[in-house]
Amino acid sequence: MTTENEGTHEGAAAENAPAVPAAPSAPPVPVAAPDGPPASVPEPAPAAAAAQDQTPAAQAAHEPVPAQYEAAPAQYEAVAAPHEPAPAQPEAVPAMSAAGAGWPPPPPAVPSYGGGGGNAPWGAPVADAPQPPKRRIGGLLAAVLVTAIVAGGVGGAVGYKMENGNNSSNTGSTTVSSSGNAQDVKRAGNTVAGVAAKALPSVVTIESKGSDGSGGTGTGFVFDKQGHILTNNHVVADAASGGSLTATFSNGKKYDAEIVGRAEGYDVAVIKLKNAPDNLVPLALGDSDKVAVGDSTIAIGAPFGLSNTVTTGIISAKNRPVSSSDSSASAKSSYMSALQTDASINPGNSGGPLLDASGAVIGINSAIQSNGSSSGTSQSGSIGLGFAIPINEASRVAQELITSPSHEPVYPIIGATVAMADSSTGAASGDGAKISAQGSGGTAAVSPNGPAAKAGLKAGDTITKLDDTVIDSGQTLISAIWTHKPGDKVTITYTRDGKQHTTQVTLGERKGDS
Question: Where do transmembrane segments lie in this chain (predicted)?
Fold first, then answer.
């Protein structure tokens, strides 16, 4: 599937965009950053328990209904008697070079995920409820009225005596205050509030500006104590050629920064703070391989420039093949086998951490699926389909960018050119990744003495599986390969002349993004 990156973008392309809240020059200070401990935030009082309705209509409202449907609440009509109130009665209710020769073109667009069309109304149909009995209610009403009058008299008398005893003037107002100071409320570290309070001081809002004045806002987080910040490549790309970068912490302290290295194919970048403080606290890194569907997630970022925003959700899918790119003509597509989450992710969240329930980073928020395509004059928001680069892959790439003398990424390859779309339909075939008849620029589709050639793969073979991952397209194959390292051995299942075969491939490597 193809998606759009969600870093906010400025410049000519965004001049006609709908107005959105401007990013403050100094973000709000919900917690202390590197220079002090985070401040506690008052915890909201629990909501009062609702009384349980025992009427047939209300009981029906509590029955389970299909997803995205909502049962209509039971309706009630008050029954009044002359001079006295009575209790209510219920009423009725193109080609990719896996060999690394050139950069792969963007994959074919595919329909957005979601339901089909149609004009069916939202909400479950509600059957007509039985009409209430029309006879033999006089005695019941009389009994209810007598009870109400007696209870009212007792309550009134008690209330009168209490009032007279406490305030002879019968005027004023009585309120109840919670015990203790709200600032003294302590929250457990494994709550969302506790995780957010600990993580926010290590998250920064990144402002990237190009030499032509274009730029945007994104997010990053402290990767190590030396001042390295991990983020997305598309967040800092504008500043790559003579631009400028700043990183602002949650306490409002701003630092200039510089790019250490970028990996366009992975959409990962590392920047470094200039004059970094000594008390930086890196976020703990989790293990994205051990994440399970249904696990809780916490996303932190600056959606639409609103720094220090925290949202929550779950892991809704794993190993989702995703390709994305920004709107610039020179942008190269990135590929990931993503963690999918329904935590609200919007433009500006790019590069921010996706945390598990313990506060460990399990991914870097990178892209969203939107209801419609972006025209360059507006930015779409969250529809509950956000995608994060697994942290195991992102941290490996970050270490390469930091430690490599050239600060360049290294990509694993199989040494074969595969079709990214069906030649007749222009869309992914869904049947696998077919090795093209010819490579880029008329070269061989299978590189001589390359990994695929040594494993016996030939032009025309269709790869249907890589280890345990089902391969339905060239995009899925590249996303799966890039979760590995050069030198890893993988088992490839493929078909040739209608027969299925398996072979083992030792992945080669390609250095740099050129």
Answer: 140-160
Taking residues 474-490, what's their average pLDDT?
Answer: 94
- Provide the residue count of the chain: 514
Known catalytic membership, residue 350: yes
CB-based contact 494:464 (threshold 8 Å): yes
The single residue listed with the structure tokens 């909400």 is 123
d(CA 202, CA 222): 5
**By the 8 A CB rule, do 20 and 305 touch?**
yes
Amino acid identity, position 151? A
- The pLDDT, as a whole number, for residue 6 is 58
Determine contact, residues 325/332, Cβ cutoff 8 Å: yes
Is 70 exceeded by the pLDDT of residue 218? yes
Provide the β-strand partners of residue 210: none
Nearest to 267 by CA among 358, 178, 331, 208: 331
Cβ–Cβ under 8 Å, residues 259 and 401: no
**Cα(469)–Cα(457) distance, rounded to whole angstroms?**
18
Q: Who has greater pLDDT, 115 or 243? A: 243
Q: How confident is the model at residue 34 (pLDDT cuts 50, 70, 90)?
A: low
DSSP string, 4-34: EE--EEESGGGTTSPP-PPPPSS---SS--T
- Of the CA atoms within 13 Å of residue 63, those in its CB half-sphere come to 13
429 is catalytic: no
The one-letter amino acid code at 283 reads: L
> 3-state SS of 421-472?
CCCCCCCCCCCCEEECCCCHHHCCCECCCCHHHHCCCCCCCEEEEECCEECC
List 202, 214, 324, 350, catalytic entry: 350
Candidate list 238, 267, 326, 342, residue with the active-site label: 267
Per mean pLDDT, which range of 85-94, 131-140, 222-231, 382-391 is the poorest?
131-140
Q: Rounded to whole angstroms, how far apart are CA atoms 87 and 67?
A: 35
Q: What is the 3-state secondary structure (H, E, C) of 407-426?
A: CCCEEEECCEEEECCCCCCC
Of 310, 336, 314, the C-alpha closest to 388 is 336
Entry pTM: 0.65
501 is catalytic: no
Bridge partner residues of 215 (DSSP): 10, 209
Task: Label residues 316-348 b or e (16+ Cβ within 10 Å = b).
Answer: bebbbbbbbbbeeeebbbbbbbbbbbbbbbbbb
For the segment 352-375, the average pLDDT, to the nearest whole number, is 84
Structural contact between residues 254 and 212, judged by C-beta atoms closer than 8 angstroms: no
For residues 50 and 476, what is the distance between their CA atoms, to the nearest angstrom? 49
Cα radius of gyration (the chain)? 30
Give SS3 for 133: coil
Three-point CA angle 131, 132, 135, nearest 5°: 125
- Angstrom distance (rounded) from CA 63 to CA 246: 53
389: pLDDT strictly greater than 70? yes
Query: Exactly one of 9, 214, 234, 288 is catalytic; which is it?
Result: 234
